[in-house]
Amino acid sequence: MDNRLAAIETPELALSIVIPIYNEEGNIERLHRELSEALGEIGREYEVIAINDGSHDRSYELLNAAQARDARWQVIHFRRNFGQTAAMAAGFDAARGEIVVTIDADLQNDPRDIKRLLDKFDEGYDIVSGWRQDRKEPFFLRRLPSMIANSLISRSTGIRLHDYGCTLKAYHFDVAKGVQLYGELHRFIPALARQMGVRVAEVPVKDRARHWGSSKYGISRTFKVVLDLIVVVFILSYFNRPLYVFGAAGFLVGGIGTLLGAYLTVFKLLTENKIGDRPLLQLAALLMVLGVQFVSTGIVADMIMRTYHESQRKPIYFIRERRRTQAKGETGEPERV
Ligand code: UDP
Ligand code: MG
């Protein structure tokens, strides 16, 4: 998000529901019905943003019909299939709600669980993640890979969640607007948002069998998740000043190389032994070159970060709340920015 103080974006209503949809014709009617019921009970002002991710079944017509019946629905049709992450990103861009809830279209999530997320959210969290404690999917193809992925992501990103893969999650407006998504990164949003300084909680939610149709993913997703994880860890650790990380490694390695070189020099001068055939000499030279390379990589990475921040006017800070007293006698009510 452009969180620069000059361009503050603020939510306009209580709740946005974001739903990625790819060939879900058999689910849309029931989705609309269950959502309307559940959201009616919650009683907050809401909008539903359905993103049709290039479906080639009747999802297009059915979504338009739902939108025509229900003014709270907004439908975005992609030109082609861009993937679930892109669909969610479009939903986040369009969302106007203070809380943005993402949910799958296949009704594996129960819309009635949205209330549980919101209750937790109101305790003061920025992200509340659904946790499918009792999953209905096959163990070896689905649950085991997902258990491994969850523990890997938790350990390496420092945001410990049992169920990164559960789409049913609630995000604060700022988080939805702030995370930069691409590839298949949607499952990493809580981890990516760590750099914003978010408070994250988990709530157990129901897992149901897919109402209609079949999953859009196979086992190959696991490899993408692992590759994405590397990128996420990189982003998290090198974010602001990559030079500090690369520079430290460079000084360490280069320092050891220099010490070894110094030792060999002194050794040669004092004892008049030959050092030309010593493996230690090669190691010293290698470490010194490596040290210089680390530092220069750090400088280049630092320049790239500078371009990133300045070209897109990205802030290097994120604000939770801003209080000030307005000039013309307005109250100093807290204002979320
Ligand atoms: N989805 C999408 N674009 C895609 C693949 C999936 O918008 O390219 C949607 C899909 O319609 C569903 C959600 O993302 O609403 C999750 O997909 P799926 O149920 O196939 O995933 P699984 O539950 O097997 O993880
Ligand atoms: Mg599903």
Report on this structure.
This protein is of the alpha/beta class. Helices cover 46% and strands 13% of the residues. Strands 3-2-1-4-6-5-7 form a seven-stranded mixed sheet. Magnesium ion (MG) binds next to loops.
Summarize the structure.
The chain has about 325 residues and is of the alpha/beta class. The protein has helices spanning about 30-40, 60-70, 85-95, 115-120, 140-155, 175-180, 190, 220-240, 240-270, 280-310; strands at about 15-20, 45-50, 75, 95-100, 125-130, 170, 200-205. It folds into two domains: about 15-235, Spore Coat Polysaccharide Biosynthesis Protein SpsA, Chain A (Alpha-Beta Complex); about 240-310.
Number of helices: 10
How much of the sequence lies in strands comes to: 5-15%
User: What is the CATH topology assignment of the largest domain?
Assistant: Spore Coat Polysaccharide Biosynthesis Protein SpsA, Chain A
At the first level of CATH, the class of the largest domain is Alpha Beta
Radius of gyration: 26 Å
Strand order of the largest sheet: 3-2-1-4-6-5-7
| Biggest beta sheet attributes | 7 strands, mixed
Q: How many angstroms separate the termini?
A: 11 Å
The CATH superfamily of the largest domain is identified as Spore Coat Polysaccharide Biosynthesis Protein SpsA, Chain A
Series of H and E elements: EHEHEHEHEHEHHEHHH
* Global mean pLDDT: 91
Could you tell me the number of beta strands? 7
Helix content: 40-55%
Instruction: Report the uncertain regions.
Output: none
Q: What small ligands are held by the chains?
A: uridine-5'-diphosphate, magnesium ion
